[in-house]
Design a protein that fits this description.
6-stranded antiparallel β-barrel, 3-stranded antiparallel sheet, 3 helices, mainly beta
């Protein structure tokens, strides 16, 4: 089985976000060298965010995967810059610009909003920079647990994540008791890719509500392959479980998030559900403090178990997974 780790981000094509007033009126969003401050952009209602899947190349760069819903497999993908937009009410929004390259030419430019943008709303470009882009890109991929999440220790005790300390031994699925190497704590605006996903008590046999960052992956063991994944063990991003009922996203306000880092990428138990911990790779390392920097985690076998977008984005996935893990 291939051990190449794949990552999926949700993006708009350049044609979805264009200048409606300003120097570059009529042009689509582009890379930083072609952007003009104070230009006003609109998001077209004719486009939806699509899945762009990439793999880490041998040189540490990004390559578009053959599993991607958009882009051309094999083309290189570069993170160009971060931009800041201002809405008419003065609120600011951030987004990332990525460029797909074929040969020596730019094949497409993608917009990755870090907060929800509304169609046909004036968004004025007030800033762009390359210095913080890598950190922000990695920050979105740093999986987080919300304050109050109960983590299972090696002793079996259920401890709120905010009470854990470095050195505490946590029960892991694949490696038994493991000591925590680092704990990160941050408070973020609960918007867009930072808005937490709430899995209601019992939805997946969890003992309490479980609140996680959207790209957090749960580990599900299927006694029967009701999902059609072709294997019993699967990893599913919680953003794909949102159904407006038992799994919802809370957009608005602020959220206290915690990250747990081990010497290796691990699957631990949060509110009784198997969930991943922080994975250090080319992308996420840029978002970590220098004093906890370490070589990238080895790609564990379970990293290849992520459910593809085509299977994950279905309205009955929560019911199927619950049935699969109990039948």
């Amino acid at each position: 089985m291939s051990q190449t780790a794949r990552n999926t981000i949700a993006v708009f094509p350049s044609a979805a976000f264009g200048v409606v007033d300003g120097v570059a009126e009529g042009d689509a969003i582009s890379f930083m060298d072609e952007l003009v401050l104070d230009d006003v952009y609109h998001l077209s209602p004719d486009f939806a965010r699509t899945a762009l899947t990439y793999e880490i190349g041998g040189d540490g760069g990004f390559v578009i995967s053959d599993a991607s819903a958009t882009g051309t497999p094999g083309n290189l993908l570069f993170l160009d810059c971060a931009i800041t937009l201002m809405a008419p009410d003065g609120a600011t929004y951030e987004a990332l610009i990525l460029v797909e390259v074929e040969g020596e030419d730019a094949a497409e430019v993608y917009l990755m909003p870090l907060a929800t943008l509304n169609p046909e709303t004036d968004y004025r470009l007030v800033g762009s920079d390359r210095d913080t882009a890598q950190m922000k890109f990695g920050d979105v991929a740093c999986v987080r647990f919300a304050r109050g999440t109960h983590i299972t220790l090696a002793s079996g005790a259920q401890v709120p994540i905010e009470d854990l300390q470095v050195g505490d031994r946590v029960l892991t699925r694949d490696a038994g008791p493991q000591a925590i190497r680092w704990i990160g704590e941050t408070t973020l605006r609960a918007v867009g890719d930072y808005a937490p996903v709430v899995i209601r008590e019992g939805a997946l046999f969890n003992t309490r509500d479980l609140v996680l960052s959207p790209d957090h992956r749960l580990f599900i063991y299927q006694r029967e392959d009701h999902l059609g994944a072709g294997r019993s063990e699967v990893l599913v991003k919680v953003r794909h479980l949102i159904n407006g009922d038992t799994v919802t996203q809370q957009d608005g306000g602020f959220v206290d998030y915690y990250q747990i880092l081990f010497d290796d990428h691990q699957i631990i138990y949060a509110e009784g559900i198997a969930a991943e911990t922080l994975l250090v790779d080319t992308r996420t390392r840029a978002a970590l403090p220098d004093d906890v920097a370490l070589d990238a985690h080895a790609t564990a076998p379970h990293n290849d178990f992520e459910v593809p977008e085509s299977l994950a984005t279905r309205p009955d996935i929560v019911q199927l997974l619950k049935k699969a893990s109990s039948s």
